[in-house]
Design goal:
Length: 366
């Protein structure tokens, strides 16, 4: 008889573990609280590790039907003077690309459905039991060989099991949204690069990220009490801080998605037959763009290790032992980058840190 899995959350982690288990013969159901499965946020950076997971899932062609690969990462001050550059591809030929979250989501969703995964929308998980039970808000109890909490940073599954060790929220927040790329006055040079603009005096930041030939992803960041973060966002405030970006900041969405930098650590990544994966287990600030890539790698490994062993609890121990060290290293890198966020006077940023690259090298084993 097929082994079974009940998964909470149809995000990048939930869809990855679901697809891989289904491809290995498991009967898999994903419970997604939203009425329609969809991505939130705007654009996303994927490094080599995330790209290789897409490959393993057979999702590359769909996900990368539209994407952008810059030849340079630039750091600039608010007037546009360069503080440093880093070339792509990364050392060792590692890639880092950008795409819209919706394109990534649709590719993963399509692969899950094609592999036979059942996705129940409007189904909110509220708790889980160590013996392999998922409880949903409609009062139903779903039993399975494996239950997975992939329900994001405020995971109800995790909290019902008392696994949370630390949830830290930093004093820096970001709005993110897409605008038409044709607002950029040029299509060459800097307008094709990924560019971090810093207004050091006001502690404000704009990250400029082309995602494909149509979409420009912008992140507007500041300390949480900065009046520039008040809604509706005021283009005059942001263009005054970043005059060189006036063409792309002249019109801003009124209330785009806002997040603070956050980090989550658990006492254990599993309890009995219940595994916690993705942001629910190991959220990290997006400073090195590795939250989703790490979530997808850990989700793929979770499916592979559990499917290969007869004893689910033992397999979950092995999975945590094999993946937790690098994940915590990645979290530390992301948190270090929060503390060093704004360039110091005279600082140049011309090198990729080996401690960051090591994460991108963590690709699925053949
Ligand atoms: C500003 C910002 C920028 C980022 N940029 C990058 C980047 O460039 N690259 C990168 O790799 N990472 C980035 N990240 C991190 C990345 O977004 C996350 O690590 C990633 O989305 C985690 O995926 P997940 O599937 O674990 O969780 P989520 O994406 O949060 O998905 C969880 C899913 O579970 C559903 N859900 C929640 N609760 C329940 C429930 N109780 N029952 C059922 N369903 C539920 C949600 O609706 C959602 O569909 C960024 C994060 C932020 C905040």
């Amino acid at each position: 008889m097929n082994r079974t899995a009940e998964i909470a959350g149809a995000g990048f982690a939930g869809l990855t573990v679901a697809t891989e288990l289904a491809r290995r013969g498991w009967r898999v159901r994903v419970h997604e609280q939203s009425p329609e499965p969809r991505a939130f946020g705007a654009g996303i950076f994927l490094w080599e590790n995330g790209l290789q997971v897409l490959n393993e899932l057979g999702a590359t062609d769909r996900a990368l039907s539209r994407y952008h690969e810059a030849s340079l990462w630039e750091e600039c001050d608010s007037a546009g003077s360069q503080l440093g550059t880093r070339p792509f591809p990364l050392p060792g030929g590692l890639r880092m690309i950008t795409l819209t979250r919706q394109d990534l989501f649709e590719a993963l969703h399509e692969q899950a459905v094609a592999a036979g995964v059942e996705i129940r929308t409007g189904s909110r998980a509220i708790a889980a039991g160590r013996d392999g039970e998922l409880v949903t808000a409609d009062g139903r109890r779903w039993t399975a060989d494996l239950v997975v909490g992939a329900d994001g940073i405020r995971s109800a599954v995790r909290d019902s099991l008392g696994l949370l060790d630390e949830h830290q929220v930093f004093d820096f927040g970001l709005y993110r949204f897409l605008v038409p790329l044709d607002r950029a006055p040029g299509r060459d040079g800097r307008w094709r690069n990924y560019v971090n603009y810093w207004n050091i005096a006001r502690k404000r930041r704009v990250l400029y990220v082309p995602c494909n030939t149509e979409d420009l992803y912008l992140l507007l960041g500041a300390t949480a009490d900065d009046s520039a973060l008040r809604l509706p966002l005021d283009p005059a405030v942001w263009t005054a801080s970043f005059p060189t970006l006036e063409p792309v900041l002249a019109e801003l969405p009124e209330a785009p998605r806002y997040d603070r930098y956050e980090v989550v650590r658990l006492t254990r990544w599993s309890a009995g037959r219940v595994a916690i994966v993705g942001d629910a287990a190991h959220a990290m600030p997006p400073t090195i763009g590795q939250g989703a890539g790490t979530a997808m790698m850990n989700a793929l490994n979770l499916a592979r290790i559990v499917a290969a062993g007869a004893d689910v609890e033992l397999a979950l121990d092995t999975w945590e032992t094999e993946n937790r060290g690098l994940t915590e290293h990645t979290q530390r890198e992301s948190v270090t980058a929060v503390h060093d966020l704004f360039p110091q006077a005279g600082e140049t940023r011309d090198e990729w840190r080996e401690d960051t690259l090591v994460v991108a090298k963590n690709v699925p084993k053949p």
